[in-house]
Amino acid sequence: MSIRNLPPVRRVITTAWLAVVGIQLAIWLAMCLIGWHLPYPFWLWTAAVGGVIVGVIWAIPVDKRGAHR
Question: Membrane-crossing residues (predicted)?
Fold first, then answer.
């Protein structure tokens, strides 16, 4: 399923989650390059827990009009 086919709320939540994880990953990569060591990958918490939440939201069935069944 493409993100464009999702209802607007799902699209916003998924896009926000991906943006936050992307920003955290970029910060972590910058820390790796600046410090020349691998700090604790703090972004994994947001990616994993947020991914589970987004996955549950995707699993909620909706009808053609976008209402929950």
Answer: 12-36, 42-60
**60 pLDDT exceeds 70?**
yes
- Residue 40's CB is within 10 A of a number of other CB atoms, namely 9
∠ CA 30-33-19, rounded to 5°: 25
If one counts every other C-beta atom within 10 angstroms of the C-beta of residue 35, the result is: 9
Contact 14, 6 (CB under 8 A): yes
Q: Do residues 3 and 47 lie in contact, with contact meaning Cβ atoms separated by under 8 Å?
A: no
pTM above 0.70, yes or no: yes
